[in-house]
Specification:
The complex is a heterodimer of chains A (101) and B (484). With 101 residues, chain A is mostly helical. Chain A contains 3 helices and 2 strands. Chain A has a domain of 39 residues: Histone, subunit A (Orthogonal Bundle). Chain B contains 15 helices and 11 strands. In chain B, strand 7, helix 8 and strand 8 form a beta-alpha-beta unit. Classes of the chains: A mainly alpha (101), B alpha/beta (484).
Chain lengths: 101, 484
């Protein structure tokens, strides 16, 4: 099933990317060729194979969890230091809820 | 005395001990060379001279006071710009983090500084470590010090180039699908990725979490072993970091590899560019001379690795990069109608082309209706690829392959064809998917003009870094780097 311009726009929307028409035109054949290429995985019968989500090795199970005690973390000022916009100890964003008049 | 910028870690220690130079002098010699040479190479994105000189002065004070020095005292080190360095820019070579100042140090950086290392600055890379040439940096490309018209490889191209051009003694990079090993091969240096979980990733900006590693570059196996030994080991701040004790890798570099079984997978040599294949064969012959047993092996699912890797890494990247929304840090587009519009404009203006391509691919393979066909399928194929290695390691101790199927290419040569660029990662992504350790070491130059660097990759079992490094070191001592 070929990848279409509509698919590019749909995926960009899901990923919160606002693409220009020029970008859509550029990405379409690139994404299409990559998706066609990865189809080759279907040559393999994996019906009896477990998926591998993470590399596991002996001794890895939970052993690395630290004890549940509070430790020093970033202060409020440090956490806000990289904010594009801040105020009153918070991150500022455009209004989310419209005010009723 | 050798140039202060051309020293190994051992030589730095000797020179400091003999008071032939101070740590400050060694640091200043590096900044002087960077000021001159890095105009052409462009390995660094930013420098931190104040931090470096403060650390060097501490080392000199410790020497003057007769205190015991750390194993990396006074050693100048470059750090890839995807690794956090407190109070300094950490941009990931992206516009979206152009003004980001890291609020803490990565564990690897903290451990290196505790051992006395001097952080000189942050190195260029492909944006968010996505690429194989460092041309995806939002700022500028880095040039290969061995041939300035060519790429240094990627994504850790700046780190590899800094070590190759004597702009740092050692460097840290990150490796997700070959981003340390391939630039090592292109720049003619040594680079290593430990077992998944061997080195803490606390402070490494996440790209693909089931594949990301931090690892070292150096001009010798010994230097790489010493840096790895310093940064490896349990970190309570990274729950994926293994609790297994770290072996004395440096102490194990005996030069004796008699009886080691070296596997050679035929899938990796079929159809290989003869310019590279010839050198690899000579490397294999050298192992034979050193008393190793050469064992032909098969890794039957190799041909599926690229497809598997690019589904998994893009899926994970799309999730990890969702955090860049212009709210808590990073770039925020100045014009926007509402919150959603702000997310979309900030992300589209802040990310470069390759990052957007991978976010879209990853979003697609995880999207409703396609998850099973792509992502789950790739995870199952990953099991098969990992199993290939488990079975191969029943019969061999290490596996030897080329690092890259191609020598370093010209800047701009491959930028318009992402799939062709992806396909060149074939020899490195398999070990990443399996989670085993790998090293790339120099393996002579291509026989034809213009005689470009060739890299040999050596792989070992999970957590068998000691054997891997011993084999690589013996190969170096036997002249393998200058094979011809």
């Amino acid at each position: 099933m070929p990848f279409t311009e509509k698919d590019v726009r749909y995926v960009a929307d899901l990923a919160h990317l606002e693409l220009t028409q020029e970008e859509v035109t550029k990405y379409l054949p690139q994404l299409d060729s990559i998706l066609q290429y990865v189809e080759k995985l279907n040559e393999l019968d994996t019906s009896a194979v477990e998926p591998m989500a993470q590399v596991t090795y002996p001794g890895s199970q939970n052993a690395a969890l630290r004890t549940d005690v509070a430790h020093r973390n970033l202060s409020q000022d440090e956490a806000l230091a990289n904010a594009p916009e801040q105020g009153a100890g918070s991150f500022k964003v455009p209004s989310v809820i419209e005010r009723e008049e | 005395m050798k140039e202060l910028t051309a020293l190994t870690i051992k030589q730095v220690a000797e020179i400091l001990k003999a008071r032939q130079a101070t740590a400050v002098e060694i640091t200043e010699a590096h900044f002087a060379r960077i000021g001159e040479k890095d105009k052409q190479v462009r390995a660094y994105l930013s420098l931190c001279p104040e931090r470096a000189l403060a650390q060097a002065k501490k080392v000199d004070a410790a020497i003057a006071a007769g205190e015991e020095l750390g194993p990396l005292a006074g050693v100048p080190i470059a750090v890839k710009d995807v690794i956090m360095t407190r109070g300094a820019h950490t941009t990931c070579a992206s516009r979206i983090l152009e003004n980001f100042i890291a609020p803490y140090d990565a564990t690897a950086v903290e451990r290196l500084e505790r051992a006395g290392a001097v952080v000189l600055g942050k190195t260029n890379c492909d944006e968010f470590a996505m690429g194989s040439s460092t041309e995806n940096s939002a700022y500028f490309p880095t040039h290969n010090p061995r041939d300035l018209s060519r790429v240094p490889g990627g994504s850790s191209g700046g780190s590899a180039a800094s070590v190759a051009a004597n702009l740092a003694t050692v460097a840290l990079g990150s490796d997700t699908g070959g981003s340390i090993r391939q630039p090592s091969a292109f720049c003619d240096v040594v680079g290593m990725m430990g077992t998944y979980g061997r080195v803490s990733r606390y402070g490494l900006v996440a790209f693909a979490s089931s594949l990301d590693h931090i690892g070292p570059f150096g001009r010798s196996v010994h230097d790489v072993a010493l840096v790895l030994q310093t940064i490896a080991g349990r970190d309570p701040l990274d729950s994926t970091c293994a609790v297994l004790p770290v072996e004395d890798y440096v102490g194990g570099l005996s030069g004796n590899i008699r009886g080691i079984r070296v596997g050679v997978p035929h899938e990796y040599l079929q159809g290989l560019n003869p310019d590279i294949g010839g050198n690899i064969q000579k490397g294999i012959d050298l192992f034979s001379k050193l008393g190793c047993e050469i064992v032909p092996i098969s890794l039957p699912h190799t041909d599926y690795a690229i497809a598997c890797y690019y589904i998994i890494c893009t899926a994970e990247a799309s999730a990890n990069l969702a955090r860049y929304d212009g709210v808590r840090y990073g770039y925020r587009s100045p014009q926007h109608a509402d919150l959603r519009d702000m997310y979309r404009k900030s992300r589209n203006q802040g990310f470069g082309a390759e990052v957007k391509r991978r976010i879209m691919l990853g979003t697609y393979v995880l999207s409703s209706g396609y998850y099973d066909a792509y992502y789950l399928k790739a995870q199952k194929v990953r099991t098969l690829i990992a199993r290939d290695f488990v079975e191969a390691f029943d019969d061999v101790d290490v596996i030897v392959t080329p690092t890259s199927p191609i020598p370093p290419f010209k800047l701009g040569e491959k930028v318009d064809d992402p799939l062709q660029m992806y396909l060149a990662d074939i020899y490195t992504v398999t070990a990443s998917l399996a989670g085993i350790p790998g090293i790339s070491v120099p393996c002579g130059k291509t026989p034809s003009e213009p005689h470009l660097p060739v890299g040999m990759q050596i792989l070992a079992k999970h957590f068998d870094e000691a054997t891997l490094l011993r084999v690589a070191d013996a190969y170096e001592k036997a002249g393998g780097f200058e094979i011809s």
